[in-house]
Amino acid sequence: MAELPPRKNATPTKLTKLLISPLKVLLQMGFPKHRAEKALAATGYRNVQLASDWLLAHVNDPTLDDLQPREYLLYLCPSGFLHSQLQEFWARSAEECGRNGAHEFLPHVTLVPPFKVPDSAVPSIVSLLERIAEHENQPIPELRLETYISQNFMGFFLNQDSAEVIKVVASRFARELAQINIAAEAHTQALHLTLAYNFPSGQYSTLEYLVRNINPNTDASHWQLRLYSRDIRLSGKKVYKVIFPHVPRETDELELLLGDFVYVDPEACNNSIDGWIEGISWLTGCSGFLPKNYVEKTAESDAWTLHKSVELNPSADELDEIDGVSASSDQALRLLNQMSPELGCNNDTNSHRDQPTSTKVVAVRPTELSKCTENYANFNLDMAGLSPVVERPLAFKQGPRRLFIVRHGERIDFTFGTWIPYCFDETGKYVRKDLNMPLSVPKRQGSPESFYKDCPLTILGETQAGLLGQALRAVGGSNRIQHVYCSPSLRSLQTCQNILKGLEIEHSVPICLEPGLFEWLVWYQDSMPQFMTPSEMLDAGFRLCENHQYFIDFSELSDRRESAEQYYMRSHYVTQCALRCTEHIGGDVLLIGHASTLDACSRQLVGGLPRSAQELSRIVHRIPYCSLAAVQQCLPEESSLDDSPDETGSNKIKWKLIEPPVPPMTYSANLRFDWQTLLP
Question: How many whole angstroms separate alpha carbon 574 and alpha carbon 517?
Fold first, then answer.
């Protein structure tokens, strides 16, 4: 028998599991195919964990095995400044005039009304929408809106030119759906965005005043194609959100958890004589009776699932905008290159003697790169003044420096889904419900709601970080890592703390809190997280460097329209600041952030250009918890630059990606055990 030839790239068999689809993973976990497809459709195909959590939550759902598909809708939704105006209008009109029909939905223009899609076909229609948006050849002009006000309807209509172009996109989507046997009809009537309807005549004047205060045609507004889906049981019902928890006392009562929504028949709600109504839980799919005063009306769209959002560029050149000025990737890169020499540490101590003592070091917004050279030309930055570690001996200046970039460990919300209602009682006290949940959570303002977008790690997440720290210590990281910068998110701080414990340097190297390391702001369209304050972090046991001046202040994290290019610029700016202000000390630098941080903080440093939004979204799914990226300073003989100096008078330092000094970390999914499965 002939011998097997050696594998060129030997790969452990278990690693192939990382490449299989979410559906196959759920099937391997033992879920029936129709249930797995239903769970993935209900959770927007976000990830396996959310789908499995959904299945466990819906274990008593009587419709779990029904093959009835969900309903889907294609909307054109505003973003940017117009969206902010509409949100304010929605709130003020509800406060001053009460709710009307428009409050049932988010601000939108209907392109394709509800159509049914089998759960197995959901990935196909999402890919279809991406393909249409990506390959639409017809330039999309700037969308213009015209105000319309009558006694029973107020809103905006797309002007004829804008409407015709959008109708072409919607019609093509409907035709493509028909080719895969999905019946849908594009909206062919006048395209409009409803602001108010079904309102009493006495509210006309107030609503008219509020509508006329909206400027619908601003340069700072953008539009998105959004594909939503909703539970078929929502048809003919209204959505209420739970404002008080309820533990059932009778078998026909419905358990209410904070954060849940309930589908209620409006007629039954109005005709209730004892204050009890029947509803269906969005969280569990179960039905039962509930006290009417424990819920309040909310928009139906709050209970929908967003499957895909595609930005519509109103211009044909497809250029990103930086502070209102159109700039291509090359232009933006040149702007940053113009700025970067001024970030360098000037080794000439005499250059600082004539500097006025009132000079203030300012963090420049990456979204204002065109102004950076002007801001930095007015004075020389004393980068040593930004460094909290000038007291340390300069013992690690020799040899090439390294930059380590780490993603945080396993987060509790992605592991357990909607965990807050389960883990906090009526008084707000945290109760551990699983061994993988933290023993306790830090005290903070706004708890427990403030944990919603700023959650802690699981026990496994803390262990992952500790293992990574121990591995780095084993290869000499304890003696080399001298500077640590961390995102303000709680999960990043806990990861950083446990890595430093594993390195056994938690008492000698403080954590420099750096807001600029927070992830891409576009993922927080509705609102930003409520971060813990520095004093709360100190009380929680995090050893922060109190002298560190933020490279980018918290106040700069406000533009949730941040483009992918602007996010890369922000991250690169923070990386450059961290390297330059510690250059005179030497030693390796550790950055703790998010999945996107590994690429955003290294790509331009090694000579690459910012990725597109689509490329960034794809790459973050390939960066698991506690992934480690390593970048090393090139030696002179490795540099490919010529001998000509840059504006600072010295050759520009180059960096390269290297293989991390420690192996990656692989682990398997572990289902939650229910002891009742052993009952006879």
Answer: 7
Identify the bridge partners of residue 156 per DSSP, sorted by sequence position: 147, 193
List 187, 407, 473, 560, catalytic entry = 407
- Alpha carbon distances (Å) from 620 to 116, 152, 362, 451: 31, 47, 31, 23
pLDDT tens column, 537-548: 999 999 999 889
Q: Is 507 tagged catalytic? A: no
Structure tokens at 49: 């964990």
As a whole number of angstroms, the distance between CA 481 and CA 510 comes to 11
Instruction: For residue 604, count CB atoms less than 10 angstroms from its CB and return exposed for 0-12, middle for 13-18, buried for 19 or more.
Output: buried
Contacts of 610 (CB under 8 A, 6+ apart): 329, 332, 564, 565, 567, 568, 569, 603, 604
Amino acid symbol at 20: I
- Arithmetic mean of pLDDT, 14-24: 63
**Which DSSP string corresponds to 500-568?**
HHHHT-TTTS-BEE-GGGS--GGG-SS----PPPHHHHHHTT--B-TTPPPSS-GGGTT-TT--HHHHH
Tokens 């006000």 appear where?
Answer: 149
Contacts of 21 (CB under 8 A, 6+ apart): none
pLDDT single digits (tens) 133-168: 776 545 566 788 999 999 999 999 998 888 888 998
Q: With H, G, I as helix, E, B as strand and everything else as coil, classify residue 577.
A: helix
Tell me the chain's radius of gyration from C-alpha atoms.
Answer: 28
Q: DSSP code of 11?
A: -
- Token output for 37: 């497809």
Q: Which two tokens stand for residue 167?
A: 């109708």
Write down the pTM of the prediction.
0.49
What residues contact 158, with CB distance under 8 A and at least 6 apart?
109, 143, 144, 145, 146, 166, 190, 191, 192
Q: Which of 222, 408, 480, 570 is catalytic?
A: 408
Give catalytic status of residue 572 as yes or no.
no
C-alpha–C-alpha distance, residues 619 and 611, integer Å: 10
Angstrom distance (rounded) from CA 183 to CA 470 = 57
Determine the residue type at 467.
Answer: L
d(CA 357, CA 482): 29
Catalytic residue among 307, 594, 603, 611: 594
pLDDT digits (tens, 9 = 90+) for 86-123: 999 999 999 999 999 999 999 999 999 999 999 999 99
Q: Phi and psi dihedrals of 164, rounded to 5?
A: -65, -40
148: number of CA atoms within 13 Å, CB side? 17
**What is the three-class DSSP state of 677?**
helix
What is the amino acid identity at position 596? S
Amino acid letter, residue 609: L
Contact yes or no for 484/505 (Cβ under 8 A): no
> Whole-angstrom distance between the N-terminal and C-terminal Cα of the chain?
53
- Paired strand residues for 192: 157
- Whether 407 is catalytic is yes
Q: How far apart are CA 472 and CA 661, in angstroms?
A: 7
The residues, ordered by sequence, that sit 6+ positions from 359 with a Cβ below 8 Å of its Cβ are: 379
The total number of residues written for the chain in this structure:
680
